[in-house]
Structure to design on (436 residues):
């Protein structure tokens, strides 16, 4: 029996051990999905706290409940020991791919993780990279490292790229039901990749190469970034003309073809939309291509927090108050509603801009009880209870993330001034509400 056929048999009869490297918003749901269908799953992460909690059946991500982990505890093992990777038949890499300070791809997590695994990878494994990256990463960076170890990709070991498509906090789409794109370095690699994912994902979509799979993920997120940039620009134009952009979008969305509604906001956040387009922008330079649409959308979206501050300043001015020394409450600091994920959140940029202009800033967010320590942002704050008495203390409330837990009617009745960046009050015409 060939190396490939042995691997395929293990994957197809669920006797393969699945290794998930990186147990965050992508890795943990994938780990649970494999365990749910009966695979033995090993989670590897450098964070001892995550490993300890997983081995106790506890969750560390708010929208993933602990009972989902404890229900499949018998099939799970988490560790910080990378040498355990040699026990796995499949290794799926789910580590971050941020940008550096020059807005260039930072592959350090991917490459350091790969280098940490290299002493323990062996013949007969399939390795899948799920981290969003530029076309060429898998065959230019991972493949040479693996083959330097004496393993031939496509014969001894099988290399694929299959981009994550998680949407944290969205109950309509879960790991099992979101179609999965998969590209292999060779035909044998693709076959192994399809076997890896076919048992746990309802529909797996094969593409011709790892580069096609890498480009697919970038196109998905660039599509969103460009259209959000467009609607954010339209918001500014509509505001100048005294037109409610939300009314316009909802009316346009009644057209049954040729229009997809996108909604404006205070900027864009999360681990994908603000970051992924620049992976292609950077790589395109190698081919002498200037990605003007992508860069323009990025410029518009990154300027949205400044637009909101302009609206806050004007609104306070109209009430005889200066932004300096005003008490401002930011509603919601997660990057989108109903999650605890703050990565690239425009709310945090708003807070920093407000502080830089002399405002006194607090926040309230049911999903983020204490402002967490991060590399870029430093606030020694905890979430303020959102009560009628508390709301009345603030000169302005900036609605930045519209969590379902917020009582928007109560907020409207008690806040002196609301600057709404999410269109929650778009159909309300009251003097204390400013649409931004």
């Amino acid at each position: 029996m060939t190396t490939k056929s042995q691997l395929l048999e293990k994957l197809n009869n669920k006797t393969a051990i699945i290794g998930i490297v990186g147990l965050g918003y992508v890795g943990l749901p994938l780990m649970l999905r494999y365990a749910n269908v009966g695979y033995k799953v090993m989670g590897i992460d450098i964070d001892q706290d995550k490993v300890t909690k997983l081995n106790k059946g506890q969750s560390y991500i708010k929208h993933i409940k602990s009972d989902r982990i404890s229900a499949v505890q018998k099939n799970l093992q988490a560790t910080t020991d990378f040498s355990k990777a040699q026990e796995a038949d499949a290794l799926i890499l789910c580590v971050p791919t941020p940008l550096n300070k020059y807005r260039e791809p930072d592959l350090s997590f991917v490459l350091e993780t790969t280098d940490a695994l290299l002493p323990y990878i062996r013949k007969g494994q399939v390795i899948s990279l799920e981290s969003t990256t530029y076309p060429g990463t898998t065959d230019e960076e991972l493949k040479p490292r693996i083959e330097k170890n004496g393993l031939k990709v496509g014969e001894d070991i099988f290399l694929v790229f299959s981009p994550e498509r998680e949407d944290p906090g969205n109950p309509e789409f879960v790991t099992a039901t979101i179609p999965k794109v998969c590209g292999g370095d060779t035909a044998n690699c693709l076959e192994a990749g399809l076997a890896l994912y076919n048992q746990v994902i309802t529909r797996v979509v094969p593409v011709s190469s790892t580069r096609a799979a890498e480009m697919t993920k970038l196109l998905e997120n660039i599509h969103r970034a460009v259209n959000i940039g467009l609607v954010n620009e339209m918001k500014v134009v509509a505001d100048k003309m005294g037109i409610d952009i939300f009314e316009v979008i909802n009316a346009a969305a009644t057209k049954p073809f040729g229009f997809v509604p996108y909604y404006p906001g205070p900027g864009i956040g999360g681990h994908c939309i603000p970051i992924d387009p620049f992976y292609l922008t950077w790589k395109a330079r190698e081919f002498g291509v200037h990605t003007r649409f992508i860069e323009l959308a990025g410029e518009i979206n990154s300027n949205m927090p400044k637009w909101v501050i302009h609206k806050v300043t004007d609104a306070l001015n109209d009430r005889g108050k200066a932004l300096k020394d005003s008490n401002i409450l930011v509603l919601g600091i997660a990057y989108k509603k109903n999650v605890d994920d703050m990565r690239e959140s425009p709310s945090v940029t708003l807070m920093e801009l407000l502080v830089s202009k002399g405002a006194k800033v607090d926040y309230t967010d049911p999903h983020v009880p204490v402002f967490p320590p991060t590399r870029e942002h430093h606030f020694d704050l905890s979430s303020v209870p959102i009560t009628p008495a508390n709301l009345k203390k603030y000169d302005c409330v900036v609605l930045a993330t519209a969590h379902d837990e917020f009582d928007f009617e109560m907020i409207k009745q008690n806040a002196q001034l609301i600057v709404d960046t999410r269109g929650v009050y778009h159909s309300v015409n009251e003097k204390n509400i400013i649409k931004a």
